[in-house]
């Protein structure tokens, strides 16, 4: 089958959409410095360098402090895009100074900009990451007969070519023994176009990055087929800056990184409020944002650049070569953590200790009021969000969450959302969109899985286990 993306990808990287053309940088006057930020409001694991950072005004506050000391005025322009490709195009045209995008787009950004000294970029921080790869997923329609990834052989799949979601699709298909160029037909589409194509039946699957899979599941327009965590490869989004701009205005880059740390701290301290701000700025439901960005969510917000992430970039080079003619990229020269190390040092923070930390900085904790126990195991802990309650309610394990849901229903309380980690992979998912398995081997416990494939892998290892519907799990939990 023809893989329809080369021409479209090339166009995206050398031209800018009509919307982007209307966002040319404001002319800069004497004594004034423009800062043009390219971000993706709907890619919520870039929130600390995008939607949340913008909503809280942390960067503007940092720059105002510089203005008070130097009398130099800074004007920040925010440009919102659906994917990383147009941000790269604008950086190549020297019209965006700082941008955030996923791991695969970062590679394309570095490869495309390196020939132009004024456009040449470097990675200076990470926004959100998942150590296993759960930021990218493949979704099918709710009533689709496809249950495992290999069922997509010969089918049409929507993906944004060159995106993190597409990179995961290519890697997953290859691992499953399917040639990603001939085994499926990939339609290069923006996420919102692909979502509509899935709903209308024009494509059989939709491969994208957060928050699109969760959004479609929440809207009951999609069912999770493949969780990127199955690949067990780090996925992340990061920040790139034009080196020429950073050399001319190092104080701006420092202010940006300090502001990103401010936004990260705010998200850790007030995750529910942060989710609301990101939802307001992106147009996404708060329940979907909180699925990923809340405690124990798939996104760990940590600006440090970890060795595993650098290695992942190096290992992703074959993907870059597979989708087009891209110049070689020296990853060790492309990644520069010196400015972030300085930002940490200025706050008396230990950068090396932060780099070594690999668990999500925020997890579900507290006291489970239904099971009357402390919530201590983040791999089991769920979270219940009930309308009218000032805070969410923790659950020590899947059984306790099901009991809490049953009690809330009995009281006539409105459940806004309920979250639970996948039993096998640990990916947090909606309880009512999970596949539930009753397992005699686990004292007849009800175990949640985010995909049918995960549930079937468990059943294969525990023949007495069986899939039950959500209502049966609610009724049977003890």
UniProtKB/TrEMBL annotation:
Name of this chain's protein: Nitrate ABC transporter, periplasmic protein
Gene3D superfamilies, per database record: Periplasmic binding protein-like II
Record domain SsuA/THI5-like: where: 116-274
Organism: Mycolicibacterium aichiense
Domain of life: Bacteria
Record PANTHER family: ABC TRANSPORTER SUBSTRATE-BINDING PROTEIN, ALIPHATIC SULFONATES-BINDING PROTEIN-RELATED
Signal peptide residues on this chain, from the entry's feature table: 1-18
Keyword presence, Signal: yes
Keywords: Signal
